[in-house]
Amino acid sequence: MEVVWTRQAIRMINEFVDYIAQDDYLAAEQWALELMSQTDKLADHPRIGRVVPEYNEETLRELIVGNYRLPYRIKENGVYIEAVWHVRQLPPDKE
Known about the structure:
The protein is of the alpha+beta class. The chain contains two helices and six strands. The chain has helices spanning 7-21, 25-40, and strands at 3-5, 50-51, 60-65, 68-75, 78-81, 85-86. Strands 1, 2, 3, 4, 5 and 6 form a six-stranded mixed β-sheet that branches. β2 and β3 (60-65) form a beta hairpin. The mean pLDDT is 93. Pfam families: ParE_toxin (PF05016).
């Protein structure tokens, strides 16, 4: 199964990288690589993450990587990383 990062998730990861890089560029780069490495596992094990408790949808799951939540949606043609949230952030309201 293919792992796809949505535009929104890429924008969010870039914002976090820019913020972290203000203090430590190398740490920002390592953080981003760790996120990518963790999400690569979803290609073979798409249900490895927990169901996002705020939404309680079987196809909407999340990986927790350090202090970050990576919600993703399982579809027939792949796994789509939808966002990157810090654990202190509240997820957006369900539409």
